[in-house]
Every structure is written in C-alpha cells, then in structure tokens.
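stuck on this:

***
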Amino acid sequence: MADNEQTEDVDVTKAWAASEDQKGKAKKLRLFAAVSWVIAIGTEIAAIVLILKKHFNEGGLALMIGLFVVIGIFAIAGSIMWKKANRHDPATKSEPVKFFIQNQLGAIITLIAFLPLLAMIFLDPDMDPRTKKIAGGFGAVLALIATFVFGADYNAPSTEQYTQDMNECAAQIKAKLPTTACSPAVAEQAQDIAKDSEAVAEATGGQDVVYWIAPKNGAEKSSSQLVFHLCPEVSTLRGKTVNSGSVTEAYSQNAVRLTKQIKMEQKQCGIVTAE
C-alpha cells in the first residue's frame, strides 16, 4: 500500500519549527513568566495606592525599598523565563514586529512595572524628601538593571538562525565531523536529516537524491508534511508534479520522511544494491 503523503509525526522543516516537546516547554515557561510579571505589576499598583493614600509622607523608606525589591525580583524572573521560552520556540525575522515584541517583551513589561511608580514618587510633592531621594534613586537603578541587563535580549534566537544551525549540524553529522553547530535546540531535527540521508544512500547505492510532490501553486514550501521517494517513476508520484534534490532540499520544501516502501520502490526504480 502506498504511503499517506501527509504525516504528523515529524516536526522538521527547512524553516525550522519547534517540536511538540519544545512548544510544551516554551508554553510552561511563558505561563510562569506571565505570573511573575502579574505579581510585579500588582506590587507596583499596591505601591501606587499607598502613595495616593499619603502613606509615605512621613517616612516609609524601608517599605518602599522592599516594594521595589519585590517588583525587581519578579520582573527579572519573568524576563529570564520568557527568554528561555524563546530559545525553545523562537519567532521568525520575516515578521519583524512580532519578532521584536516577542524578544523584547521582558524589557517592555519591566518598564511598565517600574516607570509609573517612579513617576508617582518623583512627582509627588508631599512625599518625605528622604524617602523620595533614596527609594526613588534605588528604584531607578533597579529598573535600569532589570530592563537592560535582564529584560532586553541582545542575541535573540530566530527560526532562520535555527534553520541554518540545523542544516550545518546535519552536514557535520553526515560527514562525521565534530558537531560544533549542534545546539540542543536543533540537534534532534538535524539527526533526523542525517538519518534519512544515510537511509537513502543505503537504499540507492550511495546517492543523495530523492523525489517528492512539488508544493502547490509554485510555493516554496508545502503547507502539509510530505514523503520523499527514491525515484520519480514510483507509483505514488505518477501523474504528479515532482521536485528532486538532496534530503536536505526535500526537508526545505516540507517533504520530511523517507518512504516506508523501500523494497517496492527499489524494484520500481530498477535499483540494485548489494545485499
């Protein structure tokens, strides 16, 4: 029986896509980050309410510093977890607005958690001068550290970078070279490319050329995951528009699994290999 051309158990594409496990880890980290940020902003709101109630007109320095510490801890924790989530499931540079927001959200939320409170402190004419000077200065320094050291991402990951790393990793694995490009984020998917390349070479007597149904309407990549085959004459490909190339090129168009009908296709293709 011919392969079903669509498969759901492979997560590898040329435009790198996170696996279900990676997406799950990212989702949990983003949830924890959101909770941390909610606590930070909630603490800020509580501090603003206390200012409006004139609680700091005659002191309260330790309390205000304590509130800033709580805001800083949870803002920083949220940023760290959010950046870790982006390592598991990064954005694409082809959507620049989303790419910027997703990668710099920690800095944005941190500013939201600090700036309104700092504005209230420095603009309140009735606040105790000592509290305003010391707590305000402490909060401003903490805000800068939390925003620009922990919140901003200066080396943001992207699907494009992971794609490049994945292909370099696969090439190193196939060539049996040191796997310097194989970061944990791309290693598993690169292993799949290398494994399929080896299987194709074994089935075809050393070739790295496969065939798959071309993406519809001239698209660069199929919207559904496809199977690739040993030659264009196999029954599955008859009457279809077919593309050919290396296993890596097949993956680039979302053809991400070698046919299971190796023996049948070897006969249909006239391929004879040593037993």
Observations:
- Residues 51 and 124 are 8 Å apart (CA to CA).
- Residues 20-157 form one domain.
- The radius of gyration is 27 Å.
- DSSP finds eight helices and four strands in the chain.
